[in-house]
Design a protein that fits this description.
By secondary structure, this protein is an alpha+beta fold. The protein has helices spanning about 40-55, 55-65, 70-80, 85-95, 110-120, 125-145, 150-165, 175, and strands at about 1-10, 15-25, 25-35.
């Protein structure tokens, strides 16, 4: 069903947000578009509702929302850059966690934080998992049109750092900071 909402812009003019939302077989598809005129928004809603009412259209959108594990597999298979042993091991391990079974469009920063918190490793290892997972989030939408939101990953990294789930790397390693210093004689 489509809805149209009038919204006031910063400059005082009015725009119309047209929203189409279809729920079928436990799957929800939604789409929004902004227009300058209400009649244009109304015709777009009617057109999209007709297109989405055709048999099989919603099933195509549902198929285009694979689980995170499929995005990880596609990344490892299609990457022209050689994937190192550590990255390959980390990506294989991520596929064993519940977050990998979630559809790409439903993964939020909260889910990523829960995943990072479930790791019982050193902070450096958690950082490693987060950075390799961030690579998947960065390319999944532009490369394969999977609905993984890169902003959710960035938000999760900010929260993880602020909450101490993993630490920000320092420019000087801890072993280098403990080296004895030479006394400078003038």
């Amino acid at each position: 069903m489509g809805t149209i909402t009038a919204r006031k812009r910063k400059d005082g003019s009015v725009s119309y947000l047209a929203r189409v939302r279809v729920m079928r077989d436990g799957f929800t598809y939604h789409e929004t578009e902004t227009f300058d005129r209400r009649p244009t928004a109304t015709s777009w809603v009617k057109k999209r509702e007709r297109e989405l009412a055709k048999p099989g259209v919603i099933a195509e959108y549902k198929a285009a929302d694979p689980p995170l594990a499929k995005a990880i597999d596609q990344y490892t298979e299609e990457s022209l850059k050689e994937i190192g042993r550590t990255e390959a091991q980390v990506l294989r391990a991520i596929k064993n966690y519940p977050v990998a079974d979630m559809p790409c469009s439903t993964i939020k920063s909260k889910d990523i934080i829960e995943f990072l918190q479930s790791l019982t490793s050193q902070p450096q290892t958690v950082d490693n998992y987060a950075s390799h997972l961030a690579a998947i989030f960065a390319i999944a939408r532009p490369m394969w049109d999977y609905r993984l939101d890169d902003r959710e990953m960035r938000d999760a990294i900010v929260v993880a750092r602020r909450m101490g789930i993993y630490r920000i790397w320092q420019t000087i390693s801890t072993s280098a900071a403990r080296l004895p210093r030479r006394n400078c004689v003038k």
